[in-house]
Amino acid sequence: xxxxxxxxxxxxxxxxxxxxxxxxxxxxxxxxxxxxxxxxxxxxxxxxxxxxxxxxxxxxxxxxxxxxxxxxxxxxxxxxxxxxxxxxxxxxxxxxxxxxxxxxxxxxxxxxxxxxxx
Length: 118
Fold this sequence. Notes:
Elements: H1 5-28, H2 57-74, H3 76-81, H4 83-110
C-alpha cells in the first residue's frame, strides 16, 4: 500500500491545483464587467464587421503550415545537442528528415499554399 502513496499525492495535487488556480483568479479579477469586456475583442477598437465573418481558406492553410513546420523544426534542437554522440547515423537520419520537410515545403509552394492573396 505504501507504493501507492506518491500516486495518491499526485492525484490530490492534480485535482486541487486547478480548482485553487481558478479560485485565486476569481478573487483577484476586476469586479465590474463593463461594455468593453462584453465586446468580441477587447482591443479598444470598435468592430466594423460581424464576429462571424468568414475568412479565406488560405489563412487557415498558412496557419497549419506554420504550426507543422514550427513543430517539426523543434526536433532539430535535440539532434544538434547530441550531434557528436549520434555520429554519421544521426547525420543521415536528420538529412532525410530535412529532405522530407523540404519536399513538403516545395509541394506547398507549388500548390500556391504560401500565397497570401489570390
